[in-house]
C-alpha cells in the first residue's frame, strides 16, 4: 500500500464545507453532528477527463476501458478470497458470526462474509491533514419553498417572478425537501387566499419530487394574493419523520388579460 508523502504537498489542501445537524440524547442533552456538505460525485469518466486535461498522451476512452478491465479483475480476485492492494488501501475478506466448535461448518444463518477496506498510510495521512471552513451552516432538513410560478406553453417561466397566471391550472413550486410524503392528515399541499376564506387543494400532483412540485388544480386560482402551505414528513433518507414539517410561501396570481 502507499506510504506517506512529503507533508509540504498537503499544505495547500482546500477547506471542506460542513453542515451541522442538531442531535438530542436520551437525557435531553443537545449537541450538533457535523456532515460534509454534499458536493459532486466524481466518477471514472470525470477522473479520466481530468487526467487527459493534465496533458496525458493517453485518450480518455482508453483510461475508462482500462479501468473497467481492472475493476473486473478486482471483483474476480475477491470472489476467490484474495486480498486486493489498491495502493490507497486494501480490500480483504473477513468472516462475521460465531462457530460452535473447531469442526463447525459455515452456516449462512449465523455467518457472513464482509469485505473490509483498510486505508493506506498515505490515505490516513490525508485524513489527518484535511481541514474544514471555519464557518459552518445548518443541515437543511425542513422543507423550504423558494418559488411559486406558472410556465407558458413553450415551457418557460412567466416573466414576473413568483407569479401565477389566472388562466393556468398548473402551478410549479420550487424549493428543497418539499416532496409531499407521510400519512399525517396535514401532509399535503394547499393554497390559501389572502383573506383566508378560500382554500384550494390540488386535484393531482403531476410532479412530486424533492425540489419540484407540479400541482394540477380543478380550476385556476383567482387574481390576488395567495399563500402556498405545505406539510410533509419527507426525509432524504426516506425514513419518514414522526411529525409533519411545514413551510409556506406568498405569491401573486395575476389576471391573464
TrEMBL record:
Residue intervals of the DUF4469 domain: 169-245
InterPro entries: Bvu_2165-like_IHF-HU-DNA_bdg, DUF4469
Domain of life: Bacteria
Domain Bvu-2165-like IHF-HU-like DNA-binding: 18-125
Alphabetical list of Gene3D superfamilies matching this protein: 2.70.50.70
Regions annotated as coiled coil: none
Protein name per the record: DUF4469 domain-containing protein
Amino acid at each position: 500500500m502507499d506510504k506517506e508523502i512529503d507533508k509540504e504537498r498537503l499544505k495547500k489542501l482546500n477547506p471542506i464545507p460542513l453542515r451541522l445537524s442538531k442531535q438530542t440524547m436520551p437525557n435531553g442533552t443537545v449537541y450538533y453532528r457535523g456532515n460534509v456538505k454534499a458536493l459532486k460525485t466524481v466518477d471514472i469518466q470525470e477522473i479520466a477527463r481530468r487526467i487527459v486535461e493534465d496533458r496525458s498522451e493517453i485518450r480518455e476512452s482508453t483510461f475508462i476501458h482500462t479501468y473497467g478491465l481492472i475493476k473486473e479483475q478486482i471483483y474476480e480476485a475477491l470472489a476467490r478470497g484474495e486480498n486486493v492492494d489498491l495502493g490507497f488501501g486494501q480490500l480483504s475478506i473477513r468472516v462475521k458470526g460465531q462457530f460452535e466448535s473447531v469442526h463447525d461448518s459455515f452456516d449462512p444463518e449465523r455467518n457472513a462474509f464482509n469485505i473490509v477496506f483498510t486505508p493506506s498510510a498515505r490515505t490516513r495521512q490525508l485524513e489527518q491533514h484535511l481541514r474544514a471552513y471555519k464557518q459552518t451552516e445548518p443541515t437543511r432538513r425542513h422543507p423550504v419553498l423558494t418559488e411559486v410560478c406558472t410556465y407558458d406553453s413553450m415551457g418557460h417561466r412567466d416573466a414576473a417572478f413568483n407569479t401565477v397566471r389566472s388562466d393556468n391550472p398548473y402551478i410549479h413550486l420550487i424549493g428543497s425537501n418539499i416532496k409531499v410524503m407521510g400519512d399525517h392528515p396535514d401532509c399535503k399541499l394547499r393554497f390559501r387566499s389572502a383573506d383566508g376564506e378560500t382554500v384550494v387543494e390540488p386535484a393531482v400532483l403531476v410532479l412530486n419530487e424533492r425540489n419540484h412540485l407540479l400541482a394540477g388544480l380543478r380550476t385556476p386560482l383567482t387574481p390576488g394574493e395567495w399563500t402556498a402551505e405545505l406539510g410533509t414528513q419527507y426525509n432524504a433518507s426516506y425514513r419518514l419523520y414522526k411529525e409533519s414539517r411545514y413551510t409556506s410561501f406568498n405569491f401573486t396570481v395575476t389576471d391573464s388579460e
